[in-house]
Amino acid sequence: MPVYKEENGTWRARFYYIDHTGKRRETQKRGFKKKSEAQEYEREFLRKAQYNIDMTFESLVVLYFEDLSTRLKENTLETKKYLMELKIAPFFNKLKLSEITPNTIRAWQRKILQYTNEKTGKKYSQTYIKTMNNQLVAIFNYAVRFYNLKENPCHKAGSIGKKNADEMNIWSIEEFKKFISSEKLINPIAKTGFQTLFWTGLRIGELLALTREDIDLEKKTLRVNKSYQRLKGRDIITTPKTPRSNRIIEISDNLANVLENYFEKLYDLKKKDRIFPCTKYLFEHEIKRIAKAENMESIRLHDLRHSHASLLIHLGVNPVLISKRLGHEKVETTLNTYSHIYPNANISMMNLLNDISAKK
């Protein structure tokens, strides 16, 4: 149907389309400044409705997130949207799907690989680059599956980035004790939270979701069955990252004492109250501030989890037990993530074989 000019001088697009059930429907949109803009809106809408690969990448993004909105946790969806809107879509938005080739993908990859932050002088990490590239692969896989795109151009372009970082920034026990005993670290929430993170390997969202009823001081156990996120000014409690993340882990005598002393200082603490009533910003700010004050190398909050895993590995704990404690879905995840920090694994293996073979 034609577009219409409104009394206020703007243009309105009003037309029919066939929906996914085969039913004929009418739709309209007002407020276009130009007639050509209203006409282009109608053409693009019909391309989307007809699964036409001449629709723009921008239209595909809208369809993609409409589909995912009922399938993903809110925090996961927001993370994907952030990557798409800031790191991917600006490059591809106005291109038609049919115009995007492996060379187009490689041009975007070059831009990502060459990027340098003007303030810090740092490039994207290899793991972050991998995450961005995976998101681009995912949306084209969606187009292949549901919108008749012949093939995913990312496959021919090749991958970039690395799944796991070459090195992890971790603190030894000595470094952590120096940090936690700092006279500058006076906030009891932060101090207790850091000790819990280091001695349990919890994710920060798991820590922030803990309630009083999750801690059993008699049995010295800690239950993980939820995760906390702060999204758009709202407190969001979700299920943990994976099904295996639901777990009960043992805590040391020392950590149990730390938690007991902390609880005694909390006024009228109820069993369903969060024991760390804050956001991760507090911990991110404090770890940088205290590390700087103590002339230490600062690490990320997630590196406290890596530090815990590294400690267990060096103590010779079985990888299966480490995997269960960390809430990994598979033991392979633990092995793949931490294989490079197993101490002198090859030397130990050969020493054992030499000792056995030498015996008569």
Describe this entry's structure for a reader.
With 360 residues, the chain is mainly α. The chain has a domain at 173-341: hpI Integrase, Chain A (Orthogonal Bundle), CATH 1.10.443. It is built from 15 helices and eight strands. The chain has helices at residues 35-49, 57-68, 74-92, 102-114, 126-146, 153-157, 173-180, 188-200, 204-209, 253-264, 280-293, 302-314, 319-326, 331-338, 345-358, and strands at 3-5, 11-18, 24-32, 215-216, 221-224, 227-231, 234-238, 247-250. It has a three-stranded antiparallel sheet, with helices on one face. Strands 4-5-8 form a three-stranded antiparallel sheet. It has a two-stranded antiparallel sheet with strand order 6-7. A hairpin with a 2-residue loop joins strand 6 and strand 7. Helix 8 (188-200) crosses helix 12 (302-314). The longest helix is centred in the middle third of the chain and has 21 residues, at 126-146. The protein is elongated, with a radius of gyration of 26 Å. The model has no long low-confidence stretch (mean pLDDT 88).
